[in-house]
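User: Some background: our group keeps a shared notebook of sequences we're curious about, and every so often someone picks one and asks for a predicted structure to add to the entry. Today it's my turn. The entry only has the sequence so far, pasted here. Could you supply the structure so I can complete it?
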Amino acid sequence: MWPEANETQELLLQAGRGETAAVNRLLDKHRDALRRVVELRMDRKLAKRVDASDIVQDVLLEASQRLADYLREPKMPFKLWLRHLAMDRVIETHRHHRVAARRSLDREQAFPAIPDQSSLDLLAQLRDQELTPAAATIRKELEQRFLAAVEQLDDEDREIVLLRHVEHLTNSEAADLLGLTPPAAGMRHLRALRRLRAVLGEPSQP
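Assistant: Of course. Here's the predicted structure to add to the notebook entry:
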């Protein structure tokens, strides 16, 4: 989901030397991943009125304006820094629209659970492969079932699953974002997977 770390680091070095083209490439390469982060955290009803791409554009503009500060003191990996900016913007957007509408934006009812043996494993296998049209269709269907099941988890379980299985962050990166120790994040991830498999109708793995 996120650009390769080595490529990002090289672009950061170039940006630090004042190369404007490198800044543009750096931000553009993270655009799709940021849009995915925003789409998955936006309330469904809000998403009907606000385009995730507009939020991402605001985030990238802010990142461009604050990049020099980040480069002087990079306290976290670049992608996690961008995530913080994006999540702050999502929260701000939700707050603004709740106040403007004077009503809460309750999440729409999730799709019902769809049993699918080993759907998590199959989805992972299909993730990075060159897909035939038929395989691409299967992947899309599995992803829809996966996300429908994730919608039925509580907030803590849903977030750790999205971080690990949609954003493909490491356990340490997820722990940093959640303010947990790596062992605690690992345990939360395992518990969340057990609950997710129960929603999917799959047997829990030891």
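Suggested note for the entry: Confidence is low (pLDDT under 50) at residues 102-119. The two ends are 28 Å apart (CA to CA).
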